[in-house]
Amino acid sequence: MPTIKRFEEIEAWQTARSLTKLVYGLSSEGAFSRDFVLRDQIHRASISILCNIAEGFESRTRGLFTEFLGRAKGSAGELRAQFYVALDAAYLTQEQFLALSDQCEKCSSQISRLMAYLRTLPNSSGVKRSNDASGVERSNVSTFKRSNDA
Fold first, then answer.
1. CATH number of the CATH domain containing 96
2. How are strands ordered across the β-sheet holding 127-131?
3. Residue 149, in any domain of the structure
4. Is the dihedral of CA 74, 62, 103, 45 positive or negative?
5. Cα distance between residue 76 and residue 104, in whole Å
6. Fewer beta carbons under 10 A from the terminal one: N or C of the chain?
């Protein structure tokens, strides 16, 4: 199985990045852009997903990685709830709401599958340490098979 060497290679992180870009684009328009409380909160939640995936990947242990993935998944739930607020405030159309919610659920599902995969690894070491050419220690985690439903 190939090894993920950088958090940018993790599909859930890529999905979270795409989702964050969508959130920023939609929240910068019209009345949404003037609702500073919701706009800032929705930005923080979307950023939290991708940052927790990255921080977990770079952490010391599989347990910490899994913990950070759990936080990322929690932030995905928070973000979906905020989409309802934005919909109810008429900042999002039903179509935008559904697209954002679907993307958020996709990311949450990808995180869940990664967490499940990490639980199947033998021993207590799902995060491998190795030194790169510069002598800097890097974290690696084996990839899991990509599913078509993500």
1. 1.20.1440.60
2. 3-4, 137-142, 127-131
3. no
4. positive
5. 6
6. N
Alpha helix ranges (H) inside the chain: 11-27, 30-34, 36-57, 62-88, 94-120
Q: How far apart are the first and last CA of the chain?
A: 19
Residue 148 lies in a domain: no
Within a domain: 150: no
Per residue of the chain (150 residues), what is the pLDDT tens digit?
468 899 999 999 999 999 999 999 999 999 999 999 999 999 999 999 999 999 999 998 999 999 999 999 999 999 999 999 999 999 999 999 999 999 999 999 999 999 999 999 887 444 444 444 433 334 445 444 333 343
Burial code (b: 16+ CB inside 10 Å, e: under 16) for 46-75 equals bbbbbbbbbbbbebeebeebbbbbebbbbb
Predicted TM-score (pTM) of this structure: 0.81
